[in-house]
Design a protein that fits this description.
The complex is a heterotrimer of chains A (about 350), B (about 290) and C (about 240).
Chain A lengths: L16 H20 L2 H26 L7 H19 L3 H24 L4 H20 L7 E2 L2 E2 L13 E2 L2 E5 L2 H22 L3 H11 L1 H7 L3 H27 L9 H14 L5 H19 L5 H15 L4 H17 L9
Chain B lengths: L1 H31 L6 H17 L4 H22 L8 H23 L12 E4 L2 E4 H23 L1 H11 L1 H6 L4 H27 L5 H16 L3 H22 L2 H18 L13
Antiparallel strand pairs in B: 1-2
Helix pairs in contact in B: 1-5, 1-8, 1-9, 1-10, 2-3, 2-4, 2-8, 2-9, 3-8, 5-6, 5-8, 9-10, 9-11, 10-11
Chain C lengths: L4 E12 L2 E12 L3 E5 L6 H8 L7 E6 L2 E2 L5 H7 L1 E4 L11 H9 L5 H14 L15 H14 L4 E5 L7 H14 L4 E5 L3 H7 L2 E6 L2 E7 H6 L1 H11 L3
The chains are: A mainly alpha (about 350), B mainly alpha (about 290), C alpha/beta (about 240).
């Protein structure tokens, strides 16, 4: 029996007033951070916020579209590389940013067409997306020679592109964004993407997408071409991941093959699992928590981050299916049901 | 004529590697519907066991089998403490074994360090025209074929194989007939793991043993198994044959990365045409 | 009822390996009919329904809907053309609310405002309003059947296929379902698979008997009950009539 989790309304319902308050508070908190924290903290928090975009991309696709893509890093890396290559070629960053979102979407459209219209099963979908990102990584690593040039930019194989340009202000290209500007931009983009995806879920498209996750056969029998909706969701998620990748390049002035690699792909899965895939905010929290843990482990001299992350992943899958945040909600729901005794269900709002 | 021999050799080796890295995965997936994302790390463990045992002074050929045994036992432990609780939750199994994969890479790096370990197989070369072919590589091809035939014989002609196939077809019925289905699952997983460990050991003299080596192979292994469809042996043979030829030829003329990309590309097209894999429409066989 | 044939199959056949689940079924349905399909378990009724809605691809044969061939169409295309089905096992969105379930069905074709009106109308007709915001997964079996029935009718199909709509229902619930089906029949052609003879007598005029994947007989309920062959394969054994 489906148990309503406290604080979690079905995605089809429009957000309630408190949610808007929460989103505003979240935004306000992020935007006032520069007052309390120094630049070094802002710099690492920017990284978390950018990576949270990648987590949002995955949790949207998995939690609401029911498609477990193990290779969102493919679009993340593609977005990063596209930004770097375009910006260096064009000496202009606004257009580069846009292409960095569009190109991963196009790639997702082609790849998704073959997978989704081929009606391959869930498990194949996961594995193929993983293989795609692994092969992209290998491909990029193999581009160390002088002959691998896009326009005037060398791809540099293993070493990546360490000259990835800073973002320029669109209406005044002479001004480049500084570290705190990039922080603001990342915070705004994250809030906008979060609110945007949440609102997308209450549109007709979003509701049908969720219905397909719940029971794809029923949606098809009613007359919805489920493949079209799934493909569109896949493409949207790729755009969000591409944006994340481009922002990551802007943040560190660097893109490299590690953006695609298995470790990175695993991290995305861990963020979303820790945060819980049944909400969009959970994975943002999961990203920040896990990324903080990873950084901390690095400074503590625990060299083997993957050892710890592996244990985290196994424990989460075996014991906390819903993710940490919703697990708390679930326990609260059980406690409430136990307390309210015979009155098993909360009165509809 | 030499060119033909070299091509045949390239393709044969490529085919053999596809078989070696994916057969264990195929057995586990085909029989149990479980994709073990830590497959590459099982391969790595096999390679490490092989180098360690050889360093301890054991003959290389014997260490292959000891490595297989060790990884097989490890696989059975994994099945007992983890996979067992996730049957029927196919995506959760993927996620949990991914965790295991990270754990193993981290663990092995912690214990042995990130550097590569090597083991030598000094068999020398045979000369074909202007080319020298490593004799050991021919042994690898022979190993792949032997593994394939051995697995087929085990599945097809032994009582164990019959019990396993029966259990996978209908676990409830097998249990009603007195089969200890839990044990069958454990043994099947262990068997698949042992094959993988053996493959890792056999590959160790060629590629060495290093923590990230699993990642190097899993792409090919997954593609093979997914393309294979529901008949693990026949599917793996045909997929390995197809991709072995493509990879062997393309890698020989350009580079191994291009070879692998071509294989992925073909696999995606193939799955669009045959969503259930190469053996998707076949009803009988193993 | 008109004489126009709305749904027809010609030589329809389905094999699973060596088993012929459906063998050479030629079936005709006139617009406005309320037809019942009966037959022992394994006679192929559900397989037949699944082929009509592209959940299974026929091995050979043709399916025609409003004189156009639909044999090779995808499930959603058949849904769009106007064939709705309630599968044997309740096939609903367990994780969504009752209102959401009906809304999804109503929105396939209707514009948003019309869809909302349609949802209200269906919820009122099925007396589902008190349950509107409950998750369907939390409901009792009979209630879930009605939610599914509501979904199938909300999208106003021309032909409705109902696979055992009263399974697991009490006598009272069954007679209400019969009323709902008769009501829906004013707008749509309906085919019902059922085992409950009492129920079939309440609703059906023509009955088609399936046996071993083929049509054994097709007649009025009265004649079917007198038919010796039918009695031998089906009624005689079940002894319910």
């Amino acid at each position: 029996m489906a148990l309503r989790i406290v604080g979690l309304s079905p995605p089809s319902q429009p957000p309630r007033a408190w949610w808007w308050g929460f989103a505003a508070l979240f935004a306000a908190f992020l935007l006032t951070m520069p007052i309390y924290f120094d630049i070094a903290v802002l710099f690492s928090v920017t990284n978390y916020l950018v990576l949270a975009l990648l987590a949002l991309s995955m949790s949207f696709l998995w939690g609401y579209g029911g498609m477990l893509s193990f290779g969102q890093t493919a679009f993340f890396g593609l977005g990063g590389y596209t930004y770097a290559v375009m910006a260096l070629n064009l000496h202009e960053t606004t257009g580069a940013m846009i292409v960095a979102i569009v190109l991963p979407m196009l790639f997702a459209a082609v790849l998704g067409y073959f997978m989704i219209y081929g009606r391959i099963s869930d498990i194949y979908f996961s594995v193929i997306t993983l293989v795609v990102t692994l092969i992209l990584e290998k491909g990029i690593r193999a581009t160390s020679g002088d002959q691998y040039v896009v326009g005037s930019v060398r791809l540099n194989g293993q070493n990546g592109i360490p000259t990835t340009p800073a973002l320029q202000v669109p209406w005044n290209p002479k001004v480049q964004l500084e570290i705190d500007d990039v922080f603001y931009l990342a915070a705004i983009l994250l809030v906008l993407t979060y609110v945007g995806l949440r609102l997308l879920l209450i549109t007709r498209f979003g509701r049908i997408l969720v219905s397909i996750r719940d029971n794809e056969r029923r949606s098809a029998l009613l007359g919805y071409d489920t493949r079209r909706y799934k493909l569109l969701a896949f493409v949207i998620a790729a755009g969000v991941a591409g944006l994340g990748g481009a922002m990551w390049g802007v943040w560190g002035n660097f893109v490299g093959p590690n953006m695609f690699n298995l470790g990175q792909a695993a991290q995305v899965v861990i963020w979303v699992i820790v945060g819980g895939k049944s909400t969009l905010i959970g994975p943002i929290g999961g990203t920040i928590a896990v990324q903080y843990l990873t950084d901390w482990l690095g400074t503590q001299g625990v060299g083997q981050v993957s050892l710890v992350l592996g244990i985290v992943l196994m424990v989460m899958v075996m014991l906390f299916q819903q993710g940490l945040l919703p697990s708390v909600g679930l326990i609260a729901a059980m406690a409430r049901d136990a307390l309210s005794g015979a009155r098993r269900h909360r009165a509809p709002p | 004529m030499d060119d033909v021999a070299i091509y045949a050799y390239q393709i044969g080796l490529s085919f053999a590697i596809f078989i070696l890295i994916s057969l264990g995965l195929a057995v586990i997936f085909g029989m149990m519907r479980v994709i073990n994302l830590a497959q590459g790390e099982f391969l790595m463990l096999g390679a490490y066991f092989c180098t360690l045992i050889t360093k301890a002074g054991v003959d290389l050929w014997i260490s292959f089998f000891l490595a297989a045994l060790a990884v097989g036992v490890f696989g059975m432990i994994v099945e007992r403490v983890m996979i067992r609780y996730l049957y029927g939750r196919i995506l959760d199994t993927l996620l949990a074994t991914w965790g295991l994969s990270l754990f193993l890479v981290g663990g092995v790096t912690t214990i042995f360090g990130p550097q590569s370990e090597s083991v030598a197989a000094t068999l020398g070369q045979v000369t074909v025209g202007a080319f020298g072919i490593s004799l050991y590589n021919l042994v690898v091809i022979a190993f792949a074929l032997a593994l394939l035939l051995g697995t087929y014989a085990l599945w097809r002609y032994t009582r164990f194989g019959l019990v396993v196939r029966g259990t996978m077809q209908n676990p409830a019925m097998a249990a009603a007939l007195g089969v200890n289905t839990g044990l069958v699952y454990t043994l099947t997983f262990g068997f698949g793991s042992a094959i993988t460990g053996l493959a890792g050991a056999v590959l160790a003299p060629i590629v060495g043993a290093a923590p990230p080596m699993g990642v190097f192979f899993i792409g090919k292994a997954f593609i093979t198994v997914i393309s294979a469809g529901h008949l693990p042996l026949l599917g793996t043979i045909s997929a390995s044959g197809l991709y072995g030829v493509i990879d062997g030829v393309v890698a020989y003329i350009s580079s191994s990365v291009i070879g692998e990309m071509t294989v992925l590309f073909v696999a995606i097209i193939l799955l669009r045409l045959l969503p259930l894999g190469i053996t998707g429409r076949m009803r009988r066989g193993i | 009822m008109s004489d126009e044939i709305i749904l027809e199959t010609r030589g329809l056949e389905k094999r699973f390996g060596g088993v012929r689940a459906i063998a050479d079924v030629s079936f005709k349905l006139r617009r406005g009919e309320l037809r019942c399909l009966i037959g022992p378990n394994g006679a192929g009724k559900s397989t037949f329904f699944k082929m009509l809605t592209a959940q299974l691809k026929p091995t050979s044969g043709q399916i025609l809907f409003e004189s156009k061939e639909i044999t090779r169409l995808e499930a959603h295309e058949i849904g769009r053309r106007g064939i709705g089905i309630k599968n044997q096992v309740p096939d609903v969105y367990d994780g969504l609310s009752v209102r959401e379930n009906i809304w999804l069905a109503a929105s396939v074709r209707a514009r948003p405002t019309l869809a909302r009106a349609k949802v209200d109308e269906v919820m009122a007709r099925l007396e589902l309003e008190p349950l509107a915001d409950r998750l369907v997964g939390e409901l009792a079996h009979g209630q879930r059947q009605w939610v599914e029935f509501g979904m199938v009718t909300a999208r106003e199909p021309k032909v409705i296929l109902l696979d055992e709509p009263t399974a697991g229902m009490s006598a009272e619930e069954t007679s209400r379902t019969a009323a709902l089906i008769r009501e829906a029949n004013k707008l749509a052609t309906i085919v019902v698979v059922e085992h409950d003879m009492q129920f079939i007598r309440q609703i059906a005029r023509t009955v088609t008997v399936f046996h071993q994947g083929a049509i054994l007989a097709e007649d009025t309920m009265e004649n079917i009950q007198k038919n010796q062959t039918v009695k031998d394969v089906y009624l005689g054994k079940s002894g319910r009539a």
